[in-house]
Design a protein that fits this description.
By secondary structure, the chain is an alpha/beta fold. It has six helices and twelve strands. The strands form two sheets. Strands 3-2-1-4-5-6-7-11-12 form a nine-stranded mixed beta sheet. β11 and β12 (about 220) form a beta hairpin. Bound molecules: 5-O-phosphono-beta-D-ribofuranosylamine.
Length: about 220
């Protein structure tokens, strides 16, 4: 995204609680993130994220998949509604649907997802339980550019935490979520400033390829 004098317009997609959406809104409203959250899009009109957006005066567009003949029709209808908000960047944050590659394709390099694992480990669901069951020493979250594959696409940055002997999927998820709330605004910040771009399937930071995902440390994102 070129660093335009206008703050980039971000549309967030969420299906549930919306805490990552709220973390982005908080970063924008406190002046830490030079962007605008233009709208919240959802596939669940009754979810907490939609209610939170409306409470905050942020437009919410929520369509019900069952009102459409098929998955592709729903995805098309939802993405058709984006034009009204003229977004520069789409952020999937707890959006629990697999999107049709046909709607993603025009957004290549302008759509990111936050996933609760150290990708490429554990795409899909139930990541916290799977990391504990595998005996992993660390678990984490990744923000990646969205490609055609589920939780695929080049990883931009990760946050991680040690798995302790008494961790349950719930304690691990809760600890990681606080890291997600720092990770996502930090990545969107780099994209909003035009410092992170996707160039031919390679993540570039300040014009140089990022060989390893950036890592979230106490002071922010650092080289991996
Ligand atoms: C987060 O763990 C995110 O990584 C995953 O779904 C969860 C969404 O949480 N994709 P919230 O709705 O942002 O609170």
């Amino acid at each position: 995204m070129s660093a335009s004098p206008e703050r980039p317009r971000v549309v967030v997609f969420a299906s549930g609680r919306g805490s990552n959406f709220l973390a982005l809104v908080d970063a924008v409203r406190s002046g830490r993130l030079p962007a605008r959250v233009a709208a919240l899009f959802s596939d669940r009109p009754g979810c907490a994220a939609v209610a939170a957006a409306r409470d905050l005066g942020i437009p919410a567009v929520a369509l019900r998949p069952r009102d459409f003949a098929d998955r592709a029709g729903f995805d098309r209808a939802l993405f058709d509604r984006l034009a009204a908000f003229d977004p520069d960047l789409l952020v999937l944050a707890g959006f629990l649907r697999i999107l049709d590659p046909a709607v993603i394709e025009p957004w290549a390099g302008r759509i990111v997802n936050i996933h609760p694992s150290l990708l490429p480990l554990y795409p899909g669901l139930d990541t916290h339980r799977r990391a504990i069951a595998a005996g992993d020493a660390r678990h984490g979250a990744s923000v990646h550019f969205v490609g055609a594959e589920l939780d695929g696409g080049p990883v931009i940055a990760q946050a991680s935490t040690a798995i302790t002997a008494d961790d349950t999927p719930e304690t691990l998820a809760a600890r990681l979520l606080t890291e997600e709330h720092r990770l996502l605004p930090a990545v969107v910040d780099l994209i909003a400033r035009g410092r992170i771009v996707l160039d031919d399937a390679t993540v570039q930071l300040d014009g140089r390829p990022v060989a390893q995902p950036l890592q979230l440390r106490a002071d922010g994102l650092e080289p991996g």
